[in-house]
Design goal:
This protein is an alpha/beta fold and 344 residues long. The chain has a single domain (6-281), classed as Alpha-Beta Barrel (TIM Barrel). It has 16 helices and nine strands. It has helices at residues 6-11, 32-39, 44-48, 51-65, 78-83, 104-109, 115-118, 120-133, 146-155, 163-171, 173-197, 214-230, 248-251, 267-270, 292-306, 325-342; strands at residues 70-71, 88-90, 94-96, 139-144, 201-206, 237-241, 258-260, 278-283, 311-315. It has a seven-stranded parallel beta sheet with strand order 1-4-5-6-7-8-9. It starts with 5 loop residues before the first helix and ends with a helix. This is Uroporphyrinogen decarboxylase. Homodimer. GO terms for molecular function: uroporphyrinogen decarboxylase activity. It catalyses: uroporphyrinogen III + 4 H(+) = coproporphyrinogen III + 4 CO2.
């Protein structure tokens, strides 16, 4: 039994006594205890691939920030690696794939990963974390949306345009679908295994949704996200498609419980379009660079826009690594205080 089930009740659309709050990328980045641990290791991948350490940094923000959920410390790019495409995490530059997907032969070489065999370290991290949390808060599992994973596998690194990946959609759409089907099959099995290992809620990150035109988004992303959501009927699923503001109305039909909003979307406009779904977000991460009073004011304004129910407070993107942890605490405390007053 969970001692704090606010997040799950909000995700299911049930009434809550206050708005639950957590932050994307809360596990690490801003916390000195995370940086101290990371400094003793060879790099990011060692931390991700060592279950006891991944569990430790997953729980750090629950202890330090008093958030209403833990999110497992991992990365969306463990999926292409499990499929056979290894990545490196280059300090200060981000992910790099030494080899990329270019041809039908490349796609044929990619396996549909077995979660226990190829991603067992993530599942073990979930199990270790679940035991250590001992019901304090829910545990969130996650994966990248198939389009976002394809974008990295074809491009080979982060990009402002992902023009190589997008060129494939125009020039070789069937090749793209072949790869997307393998990614989707891997992701479904992986997320189902995460639930078995202890995840109480799943979030699907479509980080590069916003660079696709609407027709391509429907064809090459949304349909696969719908498959993933439908394959997880026993837990709430959150879909966060950054930048895809024009797809919000279509998201109302997705078999998910929660829709994440980035900071450019107005919840008052979105709410009538999505029926009874819960919304998550969406404070501008840069608002946390302000004074404590400014952080309080921005947080209250956000909460007022979402209203008192069917809302999970969060940022509109991951917390930035140079954010002052004290301001993060102000954000969290303001959510708790103001949302309680809103229900008074």
């Amino acid at each position: 039994m969970l001692k704090n089930d606010l997040l799950l009740r909000a995700a299911r659309g049930e009434e809550t006594e206050r708005t639950p709050v957590w932050l994307m990328r809360q596990a690490g980045r801003i916390l000195p205890q995370y940086r101290a641990l990371r400094g003793r290791l060879s790099g990011f991948k060692e931390l991700v691939e060592t279950p006891e350490l991944a569990a430790e940094v997953t729980i750090q923000p629950v202890d330090a920030l008093d958030v209403d959920a833990a999110i497992i410390f991992s990365d969306i790019l463990v999926v292409p690696e499990a499929m056979g495409l290894t990545y490196e995490m280059v300090e200060a530059k981000g992910p790099l794939f030494p080899e990329t997907i270019k041809t039908v032969q490349d796609v044929a070489r990619m396996r549909i990963a077995d979660p226990e065999e190829h991603l067992g370290y993530v599942l073990e991290a979930l199990r270790v974390t679940k035991r250590a949390l001992n019901g304090r808060v829910p545990l969130i599992g996650f994966a990248g949306a198939p389009w976002t994973i394809l974008a990295y596998m074809v491009e080979g690194h982060g990009s402002k345009t992902f023009s190589k990946a997008r060129r494939m959609l125009y020039q070789e759409p069937e090749l793209a679908h072949k790869l997307l089907r393998k990614i989707t099959a891997t992701t479904i099995a992986y997320l189902q295994a995460q639930v078995t290992a202890g995840a109480d809620l799943i979030q699907v990150f479509d980080s590069w949704a916003g660079i696709l035109p609407p027709a391509h988004y429907k064809e090459f992303s949304q349909r696969y996200i719908a498959e993933i959501c439908a394959a997880l009927p026993n837990v709430p699923v959150t879909v966060f498609a950054k930048g895809a503001f024009w797809a919000i109305e279509d998201f109302a039909a997705l078999p998910c419980r929660t829709i994440g909003l980035d900071w450019n979307q107005d919840p008052r406009t979105v709410r009538p379009l999505v029926g009874d779904k819960t919304l998550q977000g969406n404070l501008d991460p840069c608002a946390l660079y302000g004074t404590p009073a400014q952080v309080q004011a921005a947080t209250r304004a956000m909460l007022d826009q979402f209203g008192p129910q069917r809302h999970i407070a969060n940022l509109g993107h991951g917390v930035y690594p140079d954010t002052n942890p004290d301001n993060v605490k102000v954000f969290i405390e303001t959510v708790k205080e103001h949302s309680t007053r809103m229900r008074g």
